[in-house]
Amino acid sequence: MYILCCASLSGGQGKTTACYFMARKLVNDGFRVLLIDGDPQANLTLYSGIELKPNDPTLLEVLKEVIRPEEAIYEISLFNGEIIPADNGLILAQDYLPSTGIPALVLRNLLTDDTAPAGVDVVIIDSPPQGSHLWSTCICAADGILIPAEAGSKGVNSVETTLTTLDTLKRRRKAFTGEVLGILPFRDKWIGNTQTDRSKKGTTAMKKIAEEEGFSLYNSILESEQYKKAIDAGKTLAEIGHADLETPFNQVAKDIKAKIN
Ligand code: ATP
Ligand code: MG
Question: pTM, whole model, 2 decimals?
Answer without folding.
Answer: 0.98
